[in-house]
Target: DUF2229 domain-containing protein
Amino acid sequence: MRVGLVHGFLSRRYLDFWRAYLEALGVEVVEAAPPPSDLPFCLPVQRLLAQVEALKEAGVDYLLLPDLQGGVESERGGGQCPWLLDLEAALLRYFPGLPPVLKVPAELSERVLGRAGEVGQLLVRNPMLVGRALDRTRRLLKPPPPLPTPQGSVGVVAQPYLLEEPAFRREVEAALRAHGLEAYFPDLPPERLREEADRLLPVDLPTDRELVGAIHYLGRLGRVKGLALVVSYACPPIPGLMRKAARRLGKPYRLLTLGEDWQEPLAALKAEMEKGNRGG
Model:
C-alpha cells in the first residue's frame, strides 16, 4: 500500500502527524519534490499540480489531501476559488485518473483521531494495528507554534497557505528591506486570528477568516505603521476582501501581486508611513 503526500497548502499544520501515523501502520509513504512547471496557475497551485503528477506517475494507491475549510462551504471570498474550497474537485479537472483521495483535516487536534482511525482501517483492515499506530503517534496531535517573525513596521498579510511557506516569507522580507522596511508577519495561532476576524468583518471560510483576522490584528498593533497585502493573481476574489478589511482600519496599505514589480507601491507605502509618523 502506497500513499502520496503533498507539500504546501497548509501541510506544515498536519503533515508531520499523518506521515508518522502512516509509517506506524506499515504503509509506504511517497513524497514528490515539485519540479518546475510552466502551467498557467499561481505558484502554490503549480507546485501542487507538479507533485500530484509525479505521485500519479509513481503509482500511489491513495493521495492524502487536506480539507482546507473544515467542511465549511461558501460562495463568497475564497469560496469562489476552487483551489481554496475543494482541492480534490479542482484536481480532478486536470487529472481524470486521480488516485483515490484520503481527505484529512488541515489542522490537528484530538478530534483528528476519529478520522485517523477510519483511514487506518481502510488501509490495513487491522483494528489492533490501527490502535497501536494511534497510540504511538497521538502525541503529535498538537498544532505547530506560529513561525517566528521579525517585529517590523509593515504588517504582511496573505492567504495562510502562502504565509506558511518560508520561500514566500524570504521573498517578501527581501522586497521590503530593499526599501528600508521590516516585515511583521502575523504571529497568532489560526484560531486566534479567526477570533480577530469576527471583530472586523463577517466572513465564512476558515482561511478567509484567518486572512481578515491577520489584517485586524496587525492593523491594531502600534508598531505596525502600514500593511502589505500580498495576493496571487489566480484568486481574484481575495483582493477585494483584503481591501475592504484594510479600509476599515485607516492605516496605509498597498496591494502587492506575486510576480509583479513591487518597487513603486512599496516606495509609496514607505512615503505614506513616514508622512503619518511626522503627522503624529
